[in-house]
């Protein structure tokens, strides 16, 4: 790699420290051709310096690239800038509308999401079509957060005074500017009041704190979060008598920030400044953070060009304000241009350390700088002679290096830093910035990339029309309101086919009633940071007592938010209390201890469907109400081959000195089969020495529960396991844990449950609905019922949605829709596990609109012969099951349906289902009332059908 400040030229050309891989990253820009992407830091055998010089000279002479005489390029990798924006907007709109990721109920009032939405509105303006492509989607998404009158904003918490929460207002301002809806204006007024004197806290010189929880700190990011909204409001809605003071205040924000963050030696701007010098990352003399983060500088630069759009240019005072901001803008760009990668044209994650190990070319910052330079030239803030060449180099480099075109034509923006911040364990070191996740299609890059294409279209004088760019594919438009409405047939054909089934009634008609009872709890705005109660921020000390105190204080005060700030915190078991929301901010990681002693003494719990006294679950609540676990942080159980998982130890590969977990399990299962009259679960004492691993999250006999947004990794046992609970919402959670028995979500004997937008990558069943095991389950005798599962992704696991096997209390009224399941390690998409020892009634289970890729066994399996099979006196009942519009791409079997000869499966309907790539015969034994309409099974040529059923339906008749 070429290190800025250590480059040499030979006769005007780069010397031999450029390798072939770097050259190949430049050629697509020169030749306007797409080539397969290589990792930016991969290397091929080096060319000689003479070869490189000759090649570069030849291409430069022919094409006039990067400022050498000749016309500027019209296309970049065979697409114009506006076409790239449209292609990417189409890709993102399809992705986002399918998942509803940006809208309620799963989305967040988020500056990055709303930036991407705003970029789509600007693209609609540029295309100027009679019917805007993206506006309906953007409107539905934005409005999902707003009350009908716009005076309430969901998920906006004014008392937190986070400048990040002001930025979405720019998108709302745009919508108001174009249709004057008073609903939008009311929302805008709410956000503007946040900036009034005496509200959002400020440093002594008048600049806004980044957040109330980040006292005395200015972050470069914050200038973008607050100032463009503030400037547009001042220009369009502020009373004339107050405008001058507001404009002065806006300019002062940039002045103070530049004064305290600019480094005169490099010309770059530090990520943040702490007025108090109290933060661990702050220099004791300067208060500055220790490194230059490219995206932070990009936010600051975007704030400048966007604010300049709304500063007047009428009086001498107006001109002075504009001149001051343009001077700062040039200072920012002059600094970063010095550190632009000379080959790719992009920028590095840590701006000034391009050649250092681990650093990478980062897409979001690169897109921001390209957008800022192009817009600055177009608006006359920047001179073309100085800034056009680096702008073109940047844009072309992004296309060649960081944009990936997929086989289906969709676009990915790769190598985006997911998030970065300061404080609470985030020390601002080089190593820290390199430790944050790298993802594709982060909205913090998507928005600037779309906006950049619009600006480069103008910069290059291309002026394409809508007919010159790709058409927009169909995508879903929905809001929180219509998302909860009863599902309707997609077209007339489907409705007619439904009518053909004699006596068929729509089982989904009861879904709205169930949803009307499921309401996520709300919490007061009171915030209880665990750091206020002594939680150490070094990532090593024990935070258990601080968390306990914060939860207790929150509960006693009447409820609120127990805040886990960014950073790493170590803890033992967490006991939630009523009216407490345990909230993990983005960048927060809660590490649970690996010492089993920490989870003693034993508590009343359930283990594989049997009540007992055992290790405390990692997060536990008993007979509480209105509880939540929310945020963007990570819950890390630290289970692995050395911690917790060896307790499973059911195989022959036993860990030396580790008693087999099967011994304890076998004892407990015998107790589950004792006569009910003799049972006393409080006397079943397990815990230390017994090796029954605790679940990660288990609320017990609780009601009004919300688990939202968090990531769960390395669980010892089942991940989310509510027992005997009511009114549960699990939303937007990401589960990745591949230990033994690592089920994702297991509601047991629960009612009114909503599971939506959850990502599963698990070592066992993704979702397994349960209700107690054998006699112990019959003693409790509470079914799981009224459960809705939708918009989930099951990447890996044994079963996608499973009923059983601990199902002795029964299960009814389960609705699964709009899910995706695809993995060769996923055994079965839709699975029922029961036997004559479990018993129980399973009824009214329905699945529709589910896409299945490859599964390792069957798409649907109903099996009465699981484990003990027919050897028992409690005959299982499975009845009234339906599958509609379920498709699969590949599986050994479409169906394995195995009832008992004297106790068949009853009433199983399949409509409009297509199973492709089926390799073996289906197994259909002992089933009554099987109805299959428009069911198509496409078998591989070698497969034969012995039942006749599937063969008949394979014709589609």
Describe the protein:
- This protein is of the alpha/beta class and 957 residues long.
- 30% of the residues lie in helices and 21% in strands.
- The protein has a 23-stranded parallel sheet that branches. A six-stranded parallel sheet has the order 27-30-33-35-37-40, with no helix packed on it. The chain has a three-stranded parallel sheet with strand order 12-17-20.
- The longest helix is centred in the first third of the chain and has 22 residues, at 240-261.
Number of strands: 42
Q: Provide the helix percentage.
A: 25-40%
Radius of gyration (Å): 30 Å
Alpha-carbon distance between the two ends: 63 Å
Low-confidence stretches: 1-70, 479-504, 650-654, 943-957
Q: Mean of the pLDDT scores?
A: 87
Write down the oligomeric state. single chain
Number of DSSP helices? 22
Shape: globular
Note the beta-strand portion: 15-25%
Question: Can I get a quick summary?
Answer:
The chain is an alpha/beta fold. The protein is 30% helix and 21% strand.
């Amino acid at each position: 790699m070429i290190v800025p400040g250590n480059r040499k030229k030979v006769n005007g050309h780069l010397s031999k420290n450029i390798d072939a891989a770097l050259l190949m990253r430049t050629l697509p820009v020169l030749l306007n051709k797409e080539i397969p992407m290589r990792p930016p830091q991969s290397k091929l055998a080096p060319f000689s310096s003479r070869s490189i010089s000759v090649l570069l000279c030849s291409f430069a002479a022919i094409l006039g690239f990067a400022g050498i005489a000749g016309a500027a390029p019209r296309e970049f990798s065979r697409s114009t800038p506006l076409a790239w924006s449209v292609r990417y907007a189409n890709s993102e709109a399809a992705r986002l509308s399918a998942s509803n990721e940006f809208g309620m109920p799963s989305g967040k009032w988020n500056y990055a999401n709303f930036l991407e939405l705003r970029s789509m509105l600007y693209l609609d303006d540029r295309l100027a079509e009679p019917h805007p492509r993206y506006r309906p989607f953007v409107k539905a998404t934005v409005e999902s957060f707003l009350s009908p009158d716009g005076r309430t904003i969901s998920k906006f918490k004014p008392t937190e005074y986070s400048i990040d929460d002001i930025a979405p207002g720019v998108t709302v301002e745009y919508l108001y500017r174009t249709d004057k809806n008073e609903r939008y204006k009311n929302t805008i007024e709410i956000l503007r009041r946040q900036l009034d004197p005496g509200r959002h806290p400020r440093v002594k010189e008048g600049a806004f704190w980044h957040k109330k929880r980040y006292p005395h700190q200015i972050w470069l990011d914050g200038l973008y979060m607050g100032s463009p909204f503030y400037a547009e409001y001042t220009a369009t809605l502020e009373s004339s008598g107050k405008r001058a003071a507001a404009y002065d205040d806006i300019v002062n924000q940039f002045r103070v920030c530049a004064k305290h963050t600019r480094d005169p030696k490099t010309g770059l701007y530090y990520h943040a400044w702490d007025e108090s010098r109290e933060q661990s990352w702050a220099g004791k003399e300067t208060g500055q953070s220790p490194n230059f983060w490219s995206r932070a500088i990009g936010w600051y630069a975007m704030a400048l060009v966007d604010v300049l759009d709304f500063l007047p240019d009428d009086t001498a005072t107006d001109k002075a304000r504009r001149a001051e901001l343009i001077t700062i803008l040039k200072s920012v760009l002059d600094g970063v241009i010095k550190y632009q990668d000379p080959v790719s044209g992009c920028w590095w994650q840590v701006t000034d350390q391009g050649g250092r190990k681990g650093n990478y070319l980062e897409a979001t910052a690169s897109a921001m700088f390209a957008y800022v330079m192009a817009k600055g030239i177009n608006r006359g803030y920047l001179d073309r002679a100085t800034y056009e060449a680096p702008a073109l180099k940047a844009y072309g480099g992004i296309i060649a290096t960081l944009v990936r075109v997929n086989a289906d034509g969709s676009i990915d923006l790769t190598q985006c830093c997911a998030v970065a911040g300061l404080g609470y364990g985030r020390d601002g070191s080089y190593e820290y910035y390199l430790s944050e996740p790298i993802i594709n299609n982060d909205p913090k890059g998507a928005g600037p990339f779309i906006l950049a294409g619009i600006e480069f279209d103008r910069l290059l004088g291309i002026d394409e029309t809508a007919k010159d760019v790709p058409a927009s594919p169909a995508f879903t438009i929905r809001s929180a309101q219509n998302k909860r409405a009863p599902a309707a047939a997609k077209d007339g054909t489907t409705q007619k086919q439904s009518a053909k089934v004699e006596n068929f009634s729509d089982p989904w008609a009861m879904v709205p009633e169930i949803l009307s009872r499921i309401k996520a709890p709300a919490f007061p705005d009171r915030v209880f940071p665990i750091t206020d109660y002594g939680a150490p921020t070094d990532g090593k000390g024990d935070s258990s007592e601080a968390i306990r105190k914060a939860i207790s204080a929150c509960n006693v005060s009447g409820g609120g938010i127990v805040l886990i700030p960014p950073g790493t915190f170590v803890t033992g078991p967490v006991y939630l209390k009523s009216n407490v929301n345990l909230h993990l901010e983005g960048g927060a990681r809660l590490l649970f201890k690996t010492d089993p002693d920490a989870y003693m003494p034993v508590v009343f719990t359930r283990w594989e469907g049997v009540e007992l006294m055992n290790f405390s679950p990692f997060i536990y609540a008993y007979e509480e109400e209105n509880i939540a676990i929310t945020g963007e942080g990570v819950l890390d159980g630290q289970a692995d081959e050395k911690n917790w998982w060896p307790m499973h130890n059911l195989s022959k590969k036993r860990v030396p000195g580790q008693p087999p977990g099967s011994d304890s399990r076998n004892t407990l299962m015998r107790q589950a089969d004792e006569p009910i009259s003799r049972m006393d679960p409080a006397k079943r004492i397990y815990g230390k020495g017994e090796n029954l691993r605790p679940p990660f999250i288990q609320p017990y006999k609780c009601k009004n529960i919300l688990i939202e947004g968090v990531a769960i990794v390395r669980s010892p046992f089942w991940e989310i396991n509510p027992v005997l609970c009511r009114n549960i919402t699990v939303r937007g959670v990401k589960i990745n844990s591949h230990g033994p028995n690592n089920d994702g979500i297991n509601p047991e004997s629960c009612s009114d449950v909503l599971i939506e937008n959850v990502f599963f990558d698990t070592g066992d069943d993704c979702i397994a609905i349960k209700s107690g095991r054998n006699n112990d389950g019959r003693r409790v005798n509470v079914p799981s019922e009224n459960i809705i599962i939708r918009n989930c992704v099951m990447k890996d696991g044994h079963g996608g949605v499973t009923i059983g096997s601990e199902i002795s209390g029964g299960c009814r009224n389960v609705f699964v829709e709009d899910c995706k399941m695809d993995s060769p390690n996923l055994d079965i998409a839709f699975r029922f596990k029961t036997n004559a020892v479990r018993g129980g009634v399973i009824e009214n289970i329905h699945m529709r609109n589910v896409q299945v890729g490859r599964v390792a066994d069957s798409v649907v399996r109903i099996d009465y012969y699981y484990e003990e099979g027919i050897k028992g006196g409690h005959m299982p009942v499975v009845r009234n099951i339906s599958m509609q519009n379920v498709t699969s791409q590949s599986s050994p079997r479409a169906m394995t349906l195995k009832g008992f000869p004297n106790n068949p499966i009853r009433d199983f309907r399949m409509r409009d289902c297509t199973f492709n790539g089926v390799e073996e015969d289906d197994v259909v034994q002992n089933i009554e009332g099987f109805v299959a309409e428009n069911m198509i099974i496409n078998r591989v040529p070698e497969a034969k059908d012995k039942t006749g059923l599937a063969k008949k339906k394979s014709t589609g008749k």
